Amino acid sequence: GAVVSQHPSWVICKSGTSVKIECRSLDFQATTMFWYRQFPKQSLMLMATSNEGSKATYEQGVEKDKFLINHASLTLSTLTVTSAHPEDSSFYICSAPPGTSYTGELFFGEGSRLTVL
Amino acid sequence: DAKTTQPTSMDCAEGRAANLPCNHSTISGNEYVYWYRQIHSQGPQYIIHGLKNNETNEMASLIITEDRKSSTLILPHATLRDTAVYYCFVRVGNRDDKIIFGKGTRLHILP
Q1: Identity of the residue in B49, B96, B101 whose CB atom sits nearest the CB atom of A43
Q2: How many CB atoms lie under 10 A from the CB of residue A71?
Q3: pLDDT digits (tens, 9 = 90+) for B28-49
Q4: Taking the CB of residue B82, how many other CB atoms lie within 10 A of it?
Q5: How does DSSP assign A23-61, residue by residue?
């Protein structure tokens, strides 16, 4: 089946630095990818929709200048957390619908756990 | 906001059937019912989805009421590995339609 891969799986950084998380569709092309954030013991919260070749669409309350999303190719979307602070520590998950073989299922990455010291 | 409501948590004995309910009373005619689960510190895993007919696959069965206002996910023989948070949501089913997650049900399988 289709596979979505995220990298890194976990990252620890100092406050004030920027961190980039990659989301790749390994065996299909994804014109759209979704980025979620999940705090401990909470549900997934949609942050933004990433569109290949155009600007991302952010959900209300999500700072677009803090969470930079780039979807430069049909298999790669990146989320950059700029000037990270401890409150940005979270589990970030991406999702992509498959291309031509779409049967209703959406595929999720394994998640990237960010810890900001 | 999520259009579904689920119990916060449930327990089920290992080997028994786990029946997880979901209410979606405002579901639209073109919206599918989806079920995913999330095992701790992993990405969500697809289980099953359906429009109005009952569905079954190798993982589970989905029973949708005739008025489509609620559904039940059935794990026929629960194992310890089925311990997870189970999310029910509705979406149109277009490739680019986003998912809005509710709080889900935390299922504990008891040995």
Answers
A1: B101
A2: 22
A3: 998 999 999 999 889 999 999 9
A4: 19
A5: EEESSS--SEEEEEEE-TTS--EEEEEEETTS--EEPTT
Residue type, A71: H
B chain contacts of residue A31, beta-carbon cutoff 8 Å: 96
Whether pLDDT at A47 is above 80:
yes
- Angstrom distance (rounded) from CA B51 to CA B54: 8
Whether cis (ω within 30° of 0) applies to the bond prior to A8 is: yes
Tokens describing residue B69: 């206002």
pLDDT the model gives residue B98: 83
CA angle at A35 for the pair B37 and B45, rounded to the nearest 5°:
15
Place of tokens 């976990």: A10
Query: What's the confidence (pLDDT) of residue B99?
Result: 87
Tokens at A59, concatenated? 């959900």
Contact A110 B43 (CB under 8 A): yes
To the nearest whole Å, the CA of B60 is away from the closest chain A CA by 15
Residues of A in contact with B34 (CB under 8 A): 104
The torsion angle over the Cα atoms of residues A35, A38, A44 and A46, rounded to 10 degrees, is: -30
Q: Name the closest residue on chain A to residue B84, using Cα atoms.
A: A41
Using an 8 Å CB-CB cutoff, list residues of chain B that contact chain A.
32, 34, 36, 38, 41-46, 49, 87, 93, 95-96, 98-104
